[in-house]
Amino acid sequence: MQCAFFSTALMASAVTHAHNSWLLPSDTSKGGKGGWVTFDLAVSTEFFSFDATAPKGVSVQILAPDATQSEVQNLVEGKLRTSFDVEINQPGTYKIFTASSGLNARWETADGKRGFWPPRGAKADPAEFATAVPKDAKNLEVTQASRRIETFVTLGAPTKAALKPTNQGLELVPVTHPNDLAVSEPSEFLFLIDGKPAVGAKIEVIEGGSRYRLSPGEQRYETDKNGIVKIQWKKTGMYWLGAEYKDNKATKPATVRSGNYSATLEVLVD
Asked: What is the CATH number of the domain that holds 261?
């Protein structure tokens, strides 16, 4: 498996908060024999501006159209963004993504102070859970959290081999291909949580360039009983799509299961 590794963690949440993570490609489609695409991985308060410290401690993976791993090239880790290149030379659709999961806990101590595990910036080791959390912790909430950030690039005709779900965490399964989005018609996506329909997942869509508008102009949706959401795009352009899901179907010691997902998508004319 070919990955690129960085040195601190991405923001945990996908649906809009003070800061949001995103992965922006310089192109979402290529013709002819293909070529190079540059990607920016960043955290910001506005889409798609560089106004916060660059994310660290992230592995980026490239899934080629034949579902094999491709390579990250020319990695540059800057103050406000991490950039890299990918050679798009295989016909079909590439998926570029980061994914992570782990336990986290929060509680109140006997004297009313808040406790957290793991410490900020650290990775949870499940073997340390029993000793890290006080036995007299009050209002203990243990969460099994998953996070995924994606974007897609297609050479020639769109394909779906690289888009198959892993059945781990919150995932988008395209009904409408993510590189075939048109402003004139709604796009349909299926969301899964650990391989099953994510019923009632909260979805938010925001067009890029939000710093030039008085308000973000977000569109909010919720998945139906089958985990499906239909999105009507307002106009052409680059969009950030965020999804968030939470339930109590967790594996012990977790009591809460949560999933966060985001994707950068381009909407074109017919």
From this structure: 2.60.40.3880
Q: Are 2 and 242 in contact (CB under 8 A)?
A: no
Average pLDDT over residues 11-23: 63
DSSP per residue, 109-149:
-TTS-EEEESPTTPPP-GGGHHHHS-TT-EEEEEEEEEEEE
Terminal Cα-to-Cα distance of the chain (whole angstroms)? 37
State how far the Cα of 210 lies from the Cα of 239, in Å rounded to an integer.
Answer: 10
Torsion of CA 29, 34, 38, 41, to 10 degrees: 50
Q: What is the pTM of this model?
A: 0.87
Domain count, the chain: 2
Q: Which domain holds residue 53?
A: 3-100+144-268
pLDDT of residue 17: 52
- State how far the Cα of 195 lies from the Cα of 168, in Å rounded to an integer: 7
Give start and end residues of each alpha helix (H) in 60-158.
129-132
Structure tokens at 158: 């769109």
Residue with tokens 């501006």, as numbered in its chain: 49
Counting beta carbons within 10 angstroms of the beta carbon of residue 256, is it exposed (0 to 12), middle (13 to 18) or buried (19 or more)? middle
Tokens (6 digits) for 28:
């979402």
Which of 76, 110, 143 is the last residue in one of the domains?
Answer: 143
Q: How many helices (H) and strands (E) does the chain have?
A: 1, 20
CA distances from 140 to 65, 155, 158, 206, 253 (A): 44, 49, 46, 34, 11
Least confident of 198-207, 218-227, 234-243, 248-257: 248-257
Asked whether residue 211 falls in the same domain as residue 251, the answer is: yes
Instruction: Give the integer Cα–Cα distance in Å for 91 and 153.
Output: 10
